[in-house]
Structures are given as C-alpha cells and as structure tokens.
Specification:
single chain, mainly alpha, 20 helices, 2 strands, two-stranded antiparallel sheet, globular
C-alpha cells in the first residue's frame, strides 16, 4: 500500500516508533548495569566514552534504516548480498552473526539474572532460581502475543517513567555529599582512558547507544512500521524517489529524537554511578548487583527510594528482555531463512518459528544465568562480543551507502563525513575489543 510521506514536523511525529523500540532495548542492561558499573569503577573520567558511544553510532543506524526503506530487505537478507563467500548453506556474514549471537546469549542471561535479583530483594523468601523461571515465563507469554503495535506501546510505556526518574535523581544529588560539580563534568570530558577500566569501557561502548544488535534490528521495526511498504518497490519514477526521500526524513527524525532520549538517560545513569558508587567504593557484582545499584537512588533520595528503584530496575531490565526476545525472534528466524530452511516472507512459516523461539530464548537465557550466576560479567562479555560484530555492521553500512543506495537519494557531503567518522571510530573500538579478547 503506497502512501505519501508527511511533509511537516507535526505529522512526522505521528509516524515515529521504530527507534522508540530500539531505545527501550538500549535503556536496560546497557544503562542500568554496564553504564553504572563503568561509573563505579572509573568515576567521572569515562563520561566522554558514554556520550560518544550514544552519538557516534546513530549514523550506522540511519544507513540500515535507509536501506530497508529503499529495498524492503531485512537485515540478514541484505547481509547475504554482501561481498564474500558462501560457506555451506549460508553467507560468511550469517555464520559470523550466529557465532556472535551464541556469545550474546550470556548478556541476555545476565539480564534475566538482574530482574530475578531485583525480585529477590522484594521477595526474599523465594529462591533466585524460581524467580528467574518466573521472569522467563513472563517473557514467553508476552512475546507469544507481541505484534508490532503492542511491542511499541509496551516498550515505550515500560521505559518512560523510570528514565525520567533517573534523570531527576541526578538533580536531587545537589543537596547531598554526592552532588555533581562542573569540575566533575570537565574531568569526564578530558578524553582519558585509564588502562584499568579498558574492559568495562569497551563493554559499555558496545552496548550503550546503538549496539550492533540495535542497528541490525532497526530495519525489521522500520519494515513492520510500514516505511518500506509505504515507499513501494523501487522503480525509476520520480514519484518513488519522492516517497523514499519523504519516508527517509521520517526515519531520520525517529532516530535522532530517540538518540537524544537515550543519550540523556545514559548520561544520567553514568553520573549516578560515578557520583555515588565510585565515592562509596562499591562496584556491582554477583548476586549483590541489584542491591548495590539501588544505592544510586537511596543515596540521592533516601531509603524510601529503594522500592522505586526495585520497581524501576524490574521494568527497565524486563523491557530489554522483552524487546531482546522479540528482536531475536526476527533475526534468528531470518538467519535460518537465508540458509534455506524457510521463507521469511511467508507469514505462516515465520510465525511458526517465532512461536518456537518465544519458548526457546527465555529458557536458554535463564539456564545460562543459573549456571554462571554473574550478571555483570555476563553482560560485559556479551557486550564485548557485540563490539566485534560492530565491525561487520560498519562494513555493511558503508556497502549499503556506496554500492546499493539509489543515486537519486545520495546524501550531502556533510552526511558522508559524519558516516565515515562514525565508521572509523566504531572500527577502532571493535579492533581493540578483538585484541583484548584474543591477545590479552
């Protein structure tokens, strides 16, 4: 169904949504666990890494969204057309994604553990393993019935209140010994990188802002929102080019407004970790992770804030699990489709795989948590794995821009400069993650 794009700001706002789902996924393990942990370990000195990671990666997200609008292709369908060999049934990039995805399961397991540990504080008489199973069951139930509009509404609703409360808490620190001073902010913008925090910093960089997971999932949400369908199949007509330009503008607004939201929220989490946890000399780890994290609220507001924190922690981590499950349903199903096991565009086949994965994913994540029992390290390890995948994501974004983008939609030189700066920065961090992982 072709549809002309809105031409003014007010009407464009009515068509936003895909990036809000991505934002709900970002404001979870990245913010609540990794960002505050980095703040706890480094103090203010690594603030620049957090801000940089949120801003620099949006250019890659734009290229993925633009490609989906212009071609109607899913992410892994597009990956299968990248240069390089076919290995067995799948393209090399699909196999690499699957290997990284297996490692990424640790991160999702850590998030299951985070929710279970928050519930444990509220219900101390219930064993952690049982609470983790309850979390998994809740995710299964929600994902089984999750259509796009429901996913969008639930994710936005889950995240909004807690994010606002977190930002407010930073200002509430003003009347406490943990108040953030301008000198602290300047220290955080001094571009230092102490070697002792390198592993946590790399994990935080890869998971805050748009990670490889969010960049790859974004096209699915753009397609399900209708941007590609409204644009139509590419042809040489002026009408198609005008529609494509119009819906790309909507997508740009969607991405940039969400970037502002998650950048402000991420910075708030980091400042709370640096101002409270670092000064207290405590770092979240093991089964005490959530209990330690609660101090960023109780020290700012008072003991009564612990209840608010627990509710918020459950909401923010649960939202990431919910979106993560819905995202992985699509990506994993698409991966097997590219290997010839199903037709992703066949609704019946696709929904069948979605239902199987709705059960499999939460159960697998829960089992990993019960085995490793270390949420922070599980999240950090999964995040470093995703930073390696960022290298492929960057190469794909550049390939989409210079080999597959319709010439009529060519962006400005300023846009291309920003894209290359983004690509080079991400590439540098990705290489560092590989060296740290395999060389030491």
């Amino acid at each position: 169904m072709l549809k002309n794009p809105p031409t003014n700001f007010k009407d464009r706002l009515k068509h936003l949504g895909p990036s809000l789902i991505v934002t709900a996924n970002i404001v979870g393990a990245g913010e609540l666990i990794m960002t505050t942990t980095l703040g706890a370990e480094a103090g203010y000195v690594a603030l620049w890494i957090i801000l940089f990671s949120c801003i620099v990666k949006v250019m890659v997200q734009l290229e993925f969204g633009k490609h989906a609008i212009c071609t109607g292709e899913t992410t892994l369908e597009a990956f299968a057309k990248l240069p390089g060999p076919q290995i067995g049934r799948g393209h090399w990039s699909i196999w690499m994604w699957m290997v990284i995805k297996a490692l990424h399961f640790l991160q999702m397991g850590g998030m299951v553990g985070g929710v279970a540990l928050a519930l444990k504080i509220a219900f101390p008489q219930v064993p952690v393993w049982l609470l983790a199973c309850v979390v998994a069951g809740s995710i299964v139930w929600l994902v089984l019935w999750g259509k796009y509009t429901r996913i969008e509404k639930i994710s936005v609703g889950l995240i909004a209140v807690f994010s606002i409360f977190t930002v407010v808490c930073v200002f509430l620190l003003k009347g406490t010994p943990y108040a953030v001073q301008m000198s602290d902010i300047l220290e955080g913008l001094s571009f230092q990188m102490p070697e002792a925090i390198l592993a946590v910093a790399l994990g935080a960089f890869s998971i805050t802002g748009v990670s490889s997971e969010e960049a790859m999932s974004y096209p699915y949400w753009c397609i399900e929102k209708g941007y590609a369908k409204f644009t139509g199949i590419r042809d040489q007509s002026t009408e198609w080019a005008e529609r494509a330009r119009g819906w790309i503008k909507v997508m740009y607004l969607d991405a940039f407004l969400s970037m502002i939201i998650y950048t402000v929220t991420t910075a708030a989490f980091y400042l709370l970790g640096a101002s409270v946890l670092h000064r207290l000399g405590v770092v979240p780890e093991g089964y005490e992770t959530i209990s330690v994290l609660s101090k960023i609220y109780t020290e700012a507001v008072g003991p009564e804030a612990k209840v608010i924190f627990l509710v918020g922690a459950i909401i923010v981590l649960f939202s990431s699990l919910f979106i993560g499950a819905a995202t992985n349903q699509r990506l994993i199903t698409d991966a097997f489709a590219q290997m010839g096991f199903l037709d992703y565009r066949d609704e019946v086949q696709r929904q069948k795989w979605f239902r199987v994965l709705a059960w499999f994913l939460p159960i697998a994540w829960t089992l990993l948590f019960l085995v490793f029992k270390a949420p922070v390290y599980m999240v950090m390890f999964g995040a470093i794995a995703l930073s390696i995948l960022l290298l492929v994501v960057v190469l794909a974004a550049l390939y989409f821009r210079y080999r597959r983008l319709d010439k009529r939609l060519r962006p400005s030189p300023v846009y291309d400069i920003c894209l290359w700066l983004s690509a080079l920065t991400i590439f540098a961090f990705g290489v560092q993650a590989i060296l740290m992982t395999f060389v030491g």
